[in-house]
Amino acid sequence: MKKISVLLTIIMLFSLVLAACGPAETPPAEEPVVEEPVVEEPVVEEPEEVEEVEEPEPVEEAPPFEGVTVQFWHVYSDAPGAALQELVDEFNDTNPYGIFVNALHQGNYGDIEDKVNVSIQSGDLPDVVMAYTNALADWYSVGFVADLNPYIGDPDYGLTDEQLADLYPHLKEAGSTPDGAWIAYPMTQSANVLVYNFTWAEELGFAVPPATSAELKELVCAAAAENTARGGDFTGTGGMVYFPNATNWLHWLYAFGGDELNDAHDAYDFTSQEAVDTTMYILDLKNEGCVWQTESYPNPEQGQRKAIITMSSTAGAPYYAAAFEDANNDDVWGWIAAPGPDGTLAVNAFQQMLGVIPSTQQREMASWLFVKWLTSPEIQARWVRESGYYGTQYSTEALLADYAEENPVWASGVELAAIGPSEPQTFPAWSSVRRTLNDFAAELYNATSQAEVEEILAQLTQTANDLVAEVQ
Amino acid sequence: MVKQRKKKHSLSAMSRKNLITYLILFAGAFVSLIPFIWMISTSLMSLGEALGTAFFPSQLHFENYAEAWRRAQFSEYFINSILITLITLSGELTFSIFAAYAFARIEFPGRDLIFSIMLSTIMIPAMVLIIPNFLTVTWLGRIGPIPWINNWPALTIPFMGSIFSIFLLKQFFAQVPDELFDAAQIDGAGHLRFLFQVVLPLSKAPLMVILVLSFIGTWNSLAWPMLVTNTPDWRPISVGLMNFVDEAGQLVNLTMAGAFITIIPILIIYFFTQKQFTDSIARSGLKG
Question: Are residues B106 and B189 in the same domain?
């Protein structure tokens, strides 16, 4: 009893001591420093009346952004985090503008979204933030992301026509709002792709990856038939693992030549013939027993030859490698694009986007200069080697020939990264529409007739446009 | 003879009843332990094996623990978590004890109304409070002598005023007989001495409940620390576990190794306070 009282007293005393002496000892741990923009114009004072005027000593001109600190919030920790920090350190040491970048890991994309949302209320925002495009679009709509067009087009600090032409064609559109504001600049890319077992496909008589959706059906059905013939655990497996969600359904929609918007591109429209054909194609594969579902990520199934094709982000390469290794499977595997009926190839491309938060013109320009440096081909190529993502420019690709040779799986996705397209993340209410689409994708997968599919797609269109009306 | 048979019959009925009870308890314990066993088992697997459906590892990968420790920067975060937990617990116990004592044993105008208002705040979901709390700590950091964001005050002070703890202690303090207070007064004791020498020693059980529950809550917190810290300087151990998650998946084996490392202090605390904790649960009628 006595011991407990002593313990409690100690704890309370400890708290009082901490409260009393904490402030003096705790350093103000790297609070975002809000610095006043440097006034470039020299202050001219009225000269006092003096008889002898001495010649002023020549003063070295300060760099144009001397003293500007750019806060950069990103999602990378562990080895990629350390590699990114090295790049930032290099920028701080070598940039001729006098800019200092403070790079801060803030958790994953969801954490950053939460943090920016609350920081909008408190005013403690970073200068450059890494986020999904839809989050940047949401912040832009309330005035908390800057339009990069003036900086990209700046004659001194912007991009040249050659540099702009070097960027993969779909990326400007992916980062721009319908009104033309360029709000999200791509640092790197990843994509939802088809994970393809080349060795097994060859054994089944398919020497090259399927060029059309009909060829793909033939392949996955052949793999499913082979596994069903093997029996046991393999019965009902072998074809393509398809998880019905927004990412995968849209991926196939793009391959079938469709998209999410109407012809005028001013409203959502999921009732196109392409959307119907996409869904009917997936249902056809399902009804033939050529696609199936797993409870979790399908990496082990692909490693064990229970699926010849699965759908995944290219960022999932390490997990697939581990699954193949664990299954002692030496098959050659890699990424391919989804083929449409007419041979259109598509992936669902995602970008690791950077946005600049509005502040003073000087800070915004300093932020842009850092973004420009970080995404320049040489630096981007170094970052790709560390992160395993894909570049955003043709010239980056050229710098990575040796890396591609050493990493055949990565190499199989290089061309795909340039294809796109990307989801319309800057279109109003896309975050909400996407969440809704996840539910509808599951409904579509369970539809039993074309009429039902058409009805679900009409409902989806209505719901999506209602969501737009809510935010406008 | 008949009596003996009756006794035998009732004994066997009793043991059958016990057997069923033990079977149910055993099943419950087994179900509760499965996630824990799975965590340890997965922590010893290779990544490929952990991604699959195996329950037990084919080979034991003890090196996962060293790798998890290194990659999650646990050596840094561990110290932060200990400091944050100690400060929070100290503050919570201090404020809860004094507040509960005042509500239980001191008459003052509006006491019941204030207590009712405070109690009603328990109904507000924690997520709803995040933005107001964030704005408050930001503002306090601006007007106060020390920064709150990215520092220990934002991580600890908002959790020092726990209505649940005040409520729990108040209920116990109110049960202490008035005669004891009268006797203490005759001996010359004031409220403070009565609190420390009589009330607190009698309230060991609820104090242990608060200690354990607050420890677990503070040790495991993630969303709030991520929100109010910008650098690793004050980030707790749970943040380290996030290093194993990326946009395409999770290093499940390392996550589980890290998770096991993070719960070791909770297990130690529970091991030492187990008796008081279960006693107090039984006495207070709390359910988990």
Answer: yes
